[in-house]
Amino acid sequence: MVTVKIENLSYSYKDSATSVLHDISLSFSSGERVAIIGQNGTGKTTLTKHLNGILTPDTGRVLIDNVNVENKTTAEWASKVGYVFQNPNDQLFLDTVKKELVFGPSHLGIPKKEIQKRIRFVSELVGMQEELAEHPLNLTDSEKKFCAIGAVLAMDPNVVIMDEPTGGQDKSGKYRLAKILEYLKTQQKICIVVSHDMRFVTENFDRIVVMANGHILLDGAPKEVFSNPQVLKEAFVTPPPITDLAQKLGWETTILSISEFIEELKKRVQ
Ligand SMILES: Nc1ncnc2c1ncn2[C@@H]1O[C@H](COP(=O)(O)OP(=O)(O)OP(=O)(O)O)[C@@H](O)[C@H]1O
C-alpha cells in the first residue's frame, strides 16, 4: 500500500514572473491509474516533478506515505517513486539497454540474483528482451521510451510517473503501454501519466485530472470528466472523436468507445 498527498501546492519557476501551479490539492492511493490532461504549458509536468523532489513547492507540501518529499533527495526517493521523463534522451546515459536496466536496482543495493530476475521480467514486460545488448542511441524513439520505462520499473517503485509515454507510439506501442499499466495495477502501484492522447486516456485510466492554467478543473472517472464538454473546452481538451460525435448528436449518455456507441445506437433505433 502506498499513498500520495499533494496539499495546497503552489509553484513558480525562479526566472518567471508568473506562477505555474496554484493551490493544488490531490491525493492518490494504491492501484490507481491516473491520467493528467490539459493543454500545453498548463503545468502538468511541473506538477509531477514535485512528486519525487525534482522540484520543491513554494508553498504547500507533497507527502508520500506521510513523509514530506522535501525530507529526502530525488535519488533517495528513486526506490519508491519512479519518474519516466518525456524525452528518454534526458534519462538514458549508458551504452547498453541492459546497463540502463541494471543501473537503478544495483544502486539500491539489490542482490545480483534478484537484479537478474528483475531484468528478465522487466525486459519482457517492456518488449526489450532482444535489445539488451543494443546501445540506446541505436534504438527507435519508441524503443527508447520503453527502455526508459524499463529502467524505472527495474527499481520496482510503488509510484510510477510517466510523462507523455504515448508520444511517438504507434498502435502496438500503445498496446504495450496499456499492458504495462494493467500489470502495475495488479501490483497495486500508483501510476500517474501525463498524456495528450484522449483515446488512450479513456481506455486505460480509472481517473482523469484535467488541468488548465495551473489549476485543477475536473477530477473523476473518465465518464464523469467527459460529460463536461463546456469545462473541457475551457481547458482546450478535445474529447475522443466518438465522445464528441455522441455529444453533437445530443445524446445525454457519455460515450467513450465505439462499442458503447453501437450499444446506445441499438437502443435508440429499437
Ligand atoms: N525550467 C523552466 N523554467 C521556466 N519556466 C518553465 C520551465 N519549465 C516549464 N516552464 C513553464 O511552466 C509552464 C508549465 O510548463 P509544463 O511543462 O509544466 O506544462 P505542461 O502542461 O506539462 O505542458 P506540455 O503538455 O507541453 O508538456 C509553461 O509556461 C512553461 O513554459
TrEMBL record:
InterPro entries: AAA+_ATPase, ABC_transporter-like_ATP-bd, ABC_transpr_CbiO/EcfA_su, ECF_ABC_transporter_ATP-bd, P-loop_NTPase
Molecular-function annotations in GO: ATP binding; ATP hydrolysis activity; ATPase-coupled transmembrane transporter activity
The organism's place on the tree of life at top rank: Bacteria
Residue ranges crossing the lipid bilayer per the database entry: none
Pfam families: ABC_tran (PF00005)
Keywords, sorted A to Z: ATP-binding, Cell membrane, Membrane, Nucleotide-binding, Translocase, Transport
Gene Ontology CC: one annotated term: ATP-binding cassette (ABC) transporter complex
PROSITE patterns in the cross-refs: ABC_TRANSPORTER_2
Subcellular location: Cell membrane
Membrane topology reported for the UniProt record: Peripheral membrane protein
Family annotation (SMART domains): AAA (SM00382)
Every ABC transporter domain range: 4-238
CDD domains tied to this protein: ABC_cobalt_CbiO_domain1 (cd03225)
PANTHER family xref list: ENERGY-COUPLING FACTOR TRANSPORTER ATP-BINDING PROTEIN ECFA1 (PTHR43553:SF24), HEAVY METAL TRANSPORTER (PTHR43553)
Family: Belongs to the ABC transporter superfamily.
Protein name: ABC transporter ATP-binding protein
Taxonomic source organism: Secundilactobacillus kimchicus JCM 15530
